[in-house]
Amino acid sequence: MIAELLRDAAAGCGDRPALIDAGGSWSYRELRDQCRRLAAVLRRRGVARLACHVPDSGALVQLLFASALSGVEVCLLNALLPAADCPPLMARFDLSDLVVATPRPDLGVTQLLLGELEDEARSATPLADDSVAREARLIVLTTGTTGTPKGARHSWSRLCAQAPRARQLRDSRWLLAYRLNHFAGLQLVLHVLAHQGSLVIPRSPAVTDVLAALRGHAVDHVSGTPTFWRFLLAQLDGAQAHELRLRQITLGGEAADEALLATLAGTFPGARVSHVYATTEVGSCFSVRDGRPGFPAALLARRADAPARLRIVDGELQVRPARGMLGYYGEPADAGEWRPTGDLVEVRGDRVHFTGRKTEVINVGGAKVLPLPIEALIARLAAVKLVRVYGRPNPVTGHIVAADVVAAEGAAAGTLEGAVRAACAHLPPSHRPRLVRVVPALELVNEKVIRRTS
Questions:
Q1: Secondary structure of 49-103 as H, E, C letters
Q2: Which of 119, 275, 410, 432 is least surrounded, with the fewest CB atoms within 10 Å of its CB?
């Protein structure tokens, strides 16, 4: 599937920019040729299973596609992961080679330098059509925001099938606001390739670099987590937001609350705002564009031939995908049956609302407390930039509710604790935060707040 998408894009819009990063750009014709040459290099070197530990870039996208063309099973590791943590992950998933930007002799694993692979590819003969792998696989690690990451095994053909082509998006420019090791990042790359648009990769995830990429390359489509959007909104005033000229805003990876959706709609009135539900295991499930949090209850009555069917069992959302992962690495293949998502939901009228993750439930003296509604309540305060609600052990009640809060720019941190307590005063006693801390930052993984219970 990757070969066909690259071939069609090179034939239909060969001179259009496919990838743009801080170092330059590649047209679709250049992208196709470089990917085929890199694929030939991997084939010649006898690489079979590959891990990558390099920052996101156009070169990494090319290596990713080259792996698909050559039949190499690839796993992208988070570039922010300490290098010393790579060998244990490689052993766990039987990955033999590690692609790095600079050599690390202390790691004790076979390493390939990304720059050397690029140099070798420049003089290589492209992989011929009859040598392209027909079915390649990749391992996508779950984010680990609520536990130890697992390795979801996917096939490129299934992932590409979730990215239908749309000719009206050919001139669109998309920002890569997710990391490439994240399922949503891979999904976005394939989405742009299928639509023959342009993918813009910022120099780093820092907001200053993101804004530079948005302004410098006329980006009009942006997809990111709610946490990403909160950070971006904190840096923009009305005039700056108007200059961006966004046409499409997409949220995913975390539940989107009503206040954030309304703020985005008001800040970017010319953009359509959508939020999508997808997981590393089941892939894309649905997209909602009506400006309301959660999703229509009517989606629970989807037909048997829908891309993903939904149901609620004991308050937990379950999905039966038509094209999900093949299975977790090292475990039996997934049979395509109903899969629990770990997301707790509640039906209110014609709407299904997300209330948190099963692993996030806080037991306070026998009362089950969900942090997500409390976070949404605190997030409405203008002085709050970011919030994390979690359970903290307590010898009397088992746990108490705690809240870590990051103050908004210019807010008076000294009064924030009192404001949080006042905002939660109407909640049942078990649900009120007993510990409120104003912190400089929250720990993130793939632009998502880590929500493990402390």
A1: EEEEECCCCHHHHHHHHHHHHHCCEEEECCCCCCHHHHHHHHHHCCCCEEEECCC
A2: 410
One-letter amino acid for residue 199 of the chain: L
pLDDT value of residue 145: 45
SS (H, E, C) 107-149: HCCEEEEHHHHHHHHHCCCCCCHHHCCCCCEEEEECCCCCCCC
pLDDT 10s digits, 312-340: 999 999 999 888 898 899 888 766 688 99
Amino acid identity of 236?
Answer: L
- The number of angstroms, rounded, from the C-alpha of 204 to the middle of its chain's C-alpha atoms is 15
Question: DSSP label at 453?
Answer: -
Could you give the angle at the alpha carbon of 382 between the alpha carbons of 381 and 384, nearest 5°? 70
Fill in the DSSP letter of residue 436. E
Q: Give the C-alpha separation, 43 to 151, whole Å.
A: 24
Six token digits for residue 288 = 């909602």
Q: Burial, 41: exposed, middle or buried (Cβ in 10 Å; 0-12, 13-18, 19+)?
A: buried
Give percent of the chain with pLDDT exceeding 90. 68
- Between CA 383 and CA 411 the distance in angstroms is 5
Cβ(369)–Cβ(433) below 8 Å: no
Bridge-based pairing of strands 327-328 and 151-155 is antiparallel
Q: Are strands 110-113 and 97-100 parallel, antiparallel or unpaired?
A: parallel
In order of 25, 136, 171, 201, 326, the CA distances from 66 in angstroms are: 17, 11, 25, 18, 21
Burial zone of 188 (CB within 10 Å; 0-12 exposed, 13-18 middle, 19+ buried): buried
User: Which whole number is the average pLDDT over 89-116?
Assistant: 92
Express each pLDDT in 255-276 by its tens digit: 888 889 999 999 999 999 999 9
Tokens 């039906």 sit at which residue? 347
Write 234-239 long-range contacts (CB < 8 A, 24+): 234/207, 234/385, 234/408, 234/409, 235/207, 235/208, 235/211, 235/409, 236/267, 238/267
pLDDT of the residue at 116: 95
Q: CA 448 to CA 32: how far, in whole Å? A: 33
